[in-house]
Design a protein that fits this description.
Blueprint lengths: L2 E17 L2 E15 L2 E7 L9 H9 L7 H7 L4 H18 L3 H4 L8 E2 L2 E3 L4 H10 L5 E5 L5 H11 L4 E5 L6 H12 L3 E5 L18 E4 L9 H7 L2 E4 L1 H4 L2 H13 L3 E4 L6 H11 L4 E2 L22 E2 L9
Parallel strand pairs: 5-6, 6-7, 7-8, 8-9, 9-10, 10-11, 11-12
Antiparallel strand pairs: 1-2, 2-3, 4-13
Helix pairs in contact: 1-3, 5-6
């Protein structure tokens, strides 16, 4: 008989993590463990307040579906989001353990290889962010959390501190079209390769036809395939996160549809442990940009965890962790 366990955990962040919407000092996650026939599958999700989620609401949503639910039935039982992600990933892990085959084989994917992840710099004063960039200059890609103020000054300081790094700028919906038009030309000269979610979701129609040299990537605006035509008209790429799509199953479908629509792909994450990153690593195999540095932002990670090596190299998960 199948059994399911739902737990909540809080993982301290190294220092604090700040974006344009606020700061936090811990990663609060929900974990699902499914046991059946002597095998165990696990999944982790990160409830996100921006989408109206809390640990209590996600726990309740997971508990609301039958214990014996199949992965195929999840799409009708729960909407896209953190709760469905934890269940979907736990069911993938369980299936792999029972079959004695890795998830990538069950999903018809190629064997995963190491990828290069970006490393995120939390929003701060220009000098502090430049210091953080210098400390992280071994990473070939740095992702910068920015607000509305001192944008070019901040990116200039970071570029000088880590001149070889490619830079991703993430505004988390903090800008407007006039501010984007003002700063985009200057950012082109500072090794910035991509701007993520500059305008608020639902207020980004102005990006259609907006002349730019830098890649614009949708994050908060993109959750699934339902609005992909609008996304393709406004953006050049999408950030796929399992906590938004509702798991690996939907994320793989979105990635295929995005490619068909001519969109680039970033694979991103919330701040969580290696258990949350491991399924996304399968998606990262055919992404243009990878941002799976969540465990590096924590004071400690679960064990066993993913192996992060020099220069941002991230290695596939061992079966003891997931998949």
């Amino acid at each position: 008989m199948r059994q399911r366990h739902i737990t909540t955990e809080s993982w301290p962040i190294r220092g604090s993590f700040t974006i344009s919407r606020g700061s936090k000092r811990s990663a609060d996650v929900v974990c699902v463990t499914i046991e059946e026939d002597g095998f165990t599958g696990r999944g982790e999700c990160v409830p996100y307040g921006r989408y109206g989620e809390t640990r209590d609401s996600v726990t309740a949503a997971i508990a609301s579906v039958p214990v014996a639910i199949t992965r195929e039935a999840l799409a009708d039982a729960l909407p896209p989001g953190a709760a469905r992600n934890a269940l979907d990933c736990a069911l993938w892990d369980l299936a792999a353990k029972k079959a004695g085959k890795p998830v990538w084989q069950l999903a018809g994917l190629r064997a995963p290889t190491p990828v290069t992840t970006a490393f995120t710099l939390s929003l701060d004063e220009p000098r502090a962010m430049a210091t953080a960039a210098a400390d992280a200059k071994e990473f070939p890609i740095l992702k910068l959390k920015l607000g509305r103020d001192r944008i070019v000054e901040t990116v200039t300081a970071i570029h000088h501190a880590a001149p070889d790094a490619k830079l991703i700028v993430d505004a988390n919906e903090a800008w407007d079209i006039d501010l984007l038009a003002q700063v985009e030309p200057a950012l082109c000269a500072l090794n910035v390769c991509l701007i993520e979610q500059p305008l608020p979701a639902g207020n980004d129609a102005a990006l259609a036809g907006f002349p730019r040299k830098l890649t614009l990537c949708a994050d908060e605006s993109s959750h699934g395939t339902d609005n992909l035509a609008d996304i393709a008209a406004r953006y050049d790429a999408i950030n796929i996160k399992l906590d938004k799509t509702g798991g690996l199953t939907a994320a793989l479908a979105l990635a295929r549809a995005a490619r068909e629509a001519g969109l680039g792909i970033m694979v991103g994450c919330m701040v969580g442990t290696s258990l949350a990153m491991a399924p996304a690593l399968l998606l990262a195999q055919f992404a243009d940009y990878v941002d799976l540095d969540g465990p590096l932002l924590l004071a400690r990670d679960r064990e066993p965890g993913l192996h992060y090596a020099a220069h941002g190299q991230l290695f596939p998960a061992a079966s003891a962790l997931w998949g």
